[in-house]
Amino acid sequence: MLVMLAGCVSAPVLLPPPVSQQGFVLDGRISVNYGAQSLSGKLQWTHEPSRDDINLASPLGTQVASLVRSDGNVTLTDSERNVYRAPDAETLTEQRLGWRLPLAGLVDWVRGRAQDGIVAEVRRDARGRIDFLAQADWRIEYAYDDREAATPNPASALPRRLILRYVKALEPLEIRMVIDQWSAP
Asked: Is residue 5 part of a domain?
C-alpha cells in the first residue's frame, strides 16, 4: 500500500500560464540602471493588441509612473499627476524618466520571441527556448523557471527573468525584469 501511495506523490508540475498571442497581464519587479542612476520597484503590465497599461511603483508600492499606449498615442502620468504625451513610449520615457523603455519590442521580447519584421540574432538553449536575443539595438538575456521543464512543450515556457541592455545609449542602460506572475487579460 505504501509503495502505491508513494507512486502517486510527485513534485507539482507548473504548466505555462494562459497567456495568449494577443494579450497578457504580468506582475513583477523591475530595476533600471542608467548612467550613474538606478531605480527599482514593482511592475504591473496589461497588454492587449490595442492598448498597454504599465504601472511602475516603488518597492513599497508608491506609484512612480503610469504609462498608457492607446490609439497610436502614449501617455505618461508621473507621481505628481503630471500628464505627458508622445507618439511612442521610447521617446516619452527617455524624456520624462531619463531612460528608454522599448515598449514596441518588449511586447514580444517579454514572451521570449523576436519582434516580427526586424532582423534579429537569436541563440536558443537545449530546450529550444531563446536565451539570447539581439534586436533593434537591444541585447536581451533570458532565464526560465526550470520547474516548467516537465511541460508538454517546454519551448513555449515563458521567461521569468530578462536583462535588457541598450547598445546605442550614450551612457549604459540596463533594465532587469523579474516576472512573478503571468495571466491572461
From this structure: no
Q: Alpha-carbon torsion 90, 93, 98, 102, what sign?
A: negative
SS3 127: coil
Whole-angstrom distance, CA of residue 27 vs CA of residue 14: 17
Domain count, the chain: 1
The answer for residues whose C-beta is within 8 angstroms of residue 174's C-beta and 6 or more apart is 32, 33, 34, 163, 164, 165, 166
Residue 150 has a pLDDT of 54
Q: Does 63 have pLDDT greater than 60?
A: yes
The CATH number linked to 38 is: 2.50.20.10
Contact 54, 43 (CB under 8 A): yes
Structural domain boundaries, residue 94: 21-183
